[in-house]
Amino acid sequence: MAVTGLYGKTTKDEELKLDKTYIFTPNHFSYFDIVSVNTQMPYFFSFMAKKELSRIPLFGIFFRTLDMPVDRSSKEGAKRAYYLANKKLKSGISLLNFPEGGIGPQVPKMRDFKLGPFKMAIEHGIEVVPVTLPDNWKRLPCGEWIPAGTPGRMRMHIHRPIPTENLKSGDELVLAEQVYGIIEAKFKEMNGL
Predict the structure, then answer these.
(1) Which residues have a Cβ under 8 Å from the Cβ of 28 and sit 6 or more positions away?
(2) Cβ contacts of residue 34 below 8 Å, gap of 6+?
(3) Quick one: pLDDT at residue 186?
(4) What is the Cα–Cα distance from 69 to 52, expressed in whole angstroms?
(5) 3-class secondary structure for 85-98?
(6) Which domains does the chain carry?
(7) Are the C-beta atoms of residues 174 and 29 closer than 8 Å to each other?
(8) CA-to-CA distance for 124 and 130, rounded, in angstroms?
(9) What DSSP assignment string belongs to 68-120?
């Protein structure tokens, strides 16, 4: 990252416990988000994202080292990814999932969140950790293969974990909305909006 003029800086509301399992849920506005979470997150996690990312030059290197590709063109592929994610969580391995399900057409406005990671968090009683990535969309704008962005900072803010042990099936929409609001507010604050 430094060779290309990209400078990561991570801030946190609090230190997370290294021996605890979490579900991390960052916003997703740029393919650089994959680089950020793999180089700036100070915690171990398994990564869950669409299978197509493995075919992107350079970024595919990061994705092929991870272990839960989601084949969204196949119901069986989606079931397999969900099974693998549950298996990881049960074995104590944290999960990172972009709840937007992809980069939307109106960056930097977030897409509605898919409920999968929130359902899993409630099912397993695992805390959800919102993550705000405020700069990556400026560094590599979405959909541009020849980067039109600029070198510069790639900040990451890791929020306080949200407990789920008192939530029940059906509460995933409220949890998703809470996480969305936390990320959106911090994104606006960090960008002076």
Answers:
(1) 98, 100, 102, 103, 133
(2) 49, 53, 59, 62, 63
(3) 97
(4) 8
(5) HHHHHHCCCCEEEC
(6) 2-190 (3.40.1130.10)
(7) no
(8) 17
(9) EEE-TT-HHHHHHHHHHHHHHHHTT--EEE-TT-S--TTTTSPPPPPSHHHHH
Q: Are 48 and 55 in contact (CB under 8 A)?
A: no
Q: Judge whether 100 and 137 are in contact, CB under 8 Å.
A: no
CA–CA separation, 39 and 118 (whole Å): 24
* Mean pLDDT, residues 112-123 taken together: 95
What tens digit of pLDDT does each residue of 54-79 get?
666 665 665 655 556 665 666 776 77
Mapping DSSP to helix (H, G, I), strand (E, B) and coil, where does residue 186 land? helix
